């Protein structure tokens, strides 16, 4: 898969347009009886120009794939989008992508088509996924008119569901990464954050297996039940 | 394989490459190969206690590197029906090499020890790297042993920087030995023998019998003595003035053995003989050291013939220089500690001789050394632990003997201190009336020590149970030791108390593991002697005493215990190696402190070590734990 990305990047550099079958973009899969131990899961992280989905834009996409309970590093996605028109001065300090890098990014439309094909309709996991979901769905709709909903799973829900007693000292990705002693190579780099999120997902999936949660549906149900429980506590 | 610019690689590929670069063998591999690894890797998670690889999994098809956490190897001990940890693999280390290369299942169950992430590549990527990267292939084929080689190479190269020679003392003697040595028959007149030496431009001639067995040696030094002391005319048959029974070694002995033999006896020449004791060559001190400037024999001789205390004191710095040189020439730590001990022995003997010349107390005695000197395990940092054993002459009381010996011992202790042997803080010195005893008194002393052993007594076990004679007749000590060993062998309770005492000092593994996670925090110091070496020395002592092993040297005790079947030979080798490596790291630290003009200590900060040494130190400490476990099982502690 990485070779495929390389070829694609080289084609893009040569100025060729990607060939995409716009009529037959993958259909998102729903939470069914797929076994967690062999289905493919996308773990994704976006860097954006800000926190407001109505106003701000996606500037980088990082994602890795988990298949068969293992992260495959030859199956990853790490792209900066070409958005020179965007003003990124406010957030440049956080994610470290300067204007120069953005102008060297890739044609948004092409990159998004490629992302959709690479995701292959598989379930998408992210930390505080509501944020990434809003931004990605907005961008896909605006650029490609693509509106099919993927199945999203929030890793921020997944972890407390399987480690209810963990004393993490907070709910942020950093808190969980520290709790499990992970080293994040470069925080706020989309791909590095995606890998850290995927590593936490592996830890949770290992625990899920031991608790007898076998299918995607069972996992989704457990998380839904967990959310309901939390909402009840809130009142 | 693509060799893209680093910046064109995805962030996660770059991150994995820089992780790999911190560890051997990846640190010596090309970027293109590291990229190939990173791009073909999978990342796997194993929770604490999960099986990672099992003998039941079939032929191994995957190569792993621990990214975070730890893997332990488990072996079931059928005899004792319990599970033992055979090895530990931590961050940056690889597994399973032997099984992967041998295309067979693993023989050891690999289990996650704590939550663990591993990077792995499949067999095809492994084969690509194996065939394209030389450092990777070397590493896989030689396994951990190549790491040990690297450590030894570095120890040598550090000291070598100032020496500029690579001759190793492990070289078999036959490579040094002069072939077709100059020989003559015993009846040849000295004049003709010397003429033959002159013709051949050599300093010695070997006197052989009809079967070519060496029966004597005659050297230029002997000629000098003969003329100076007017021992006879030059037509005296050489057999009357030769040194009979010359020292000999088999051809497969190494240069180190020859050097030690020469240093001990102050000989400059040795005969090299074949299996039937026939002369095949001569090796001289010059042959051994001409290229190396390692003047062990000369130094030993200078010490051994010094006429003033002042000279002895000034020679101590030469000993330190020599240690540097020995390390440079590939002597291992076991060899070097023996050399230091040999030179220390020569110094102690000479101090005693000089004092006897000045002020002989008139009573024969045996000078005993205890502790590390008794074990022949001294490094440059050493203090005095000595005592006197005497036989009370007829008509004298033991008190009367002490009155004569104690002032003598006091002077010797003081002069040894001037030579650099620090006075013993616990007053374990021959000038202490309690340690200047007759054979009968020593025997009583040991009876009390063994039968009425108190916790305080046990503290002294590391001193008094490692005992050796340095000067004077050795027979009285041998008799004493025999009685002591028999008593200990019969006294299971004492053995058990000794074993309990040996378990007091635990290898610093917990601390060592912690420091890995505490970068910015206060640094940790390790005491290589008390925490690293002592667990070996003390555990081995218990086994040695319980099994009638008389030698006090820890490495030799382990060898003996393996021969007696008390230790599994593989275990004994692992323990010997681990012990030697800690000793080597300690000695290198000493040399570095010395070169910086600092006071010698046994403390090191593991953060100052490179990752390889840290790994090896950790593995060595783990071996110490295994040895202690054996002690626990044997004595049911």
Automatic annotation (TrEMBL), chain A:
First-level EC class: transferase
Annotated signal sequence range: none
Swiss-Prot/TrEMBL catalytic activity: DNA(n) + a 2'-deoxyribonucleoside 5'-triphosphate = DNA(n+1) + diphosphate
GO biological process entries: DNA replication
Keyword Nucleotide-binding applies: no
Transmembrane segments: none
EC number in record: 2.7.7.7
Superkingdom to which the source organism belongs: Bacteria
Domain Exonuclease stretches: 40-210
Record's keyword terms, sorted: Exonuclease, Hydrolase, Nuclease
Sample GO molecular function, one term: DNA-directed DNA polymerase activity
Annotated GO CC locations: cytosol
NCBIfam families xrefs: dnaq (TIGR00573)
Stated name of the protein: DNA-directed DNA polymerase
Species of the source: Marinobacter pelagius
TrEMBL record, chain B:
PANTHER family: CBS DOMAIN-CONTAINING PROTEIN (PTHR43080:SF2), CBS DOMAIN-CONTAINING PROTEIN CBSX3, MITOCHONDRIAL (PTHR43080)
Keywords: CBS domain
Domain CBS: 177-234, 242-299
Gene Ontology MF terms: [protein-PII] uridylyltransferase activity
Organism: Marinobacter pelagius
Annotated protein name in UniProt: CBS domain-containing protein
A Pfam family: cNMP_binding
UniProt domain Cyclic nucleotide-binding: residue ranges: 25-130
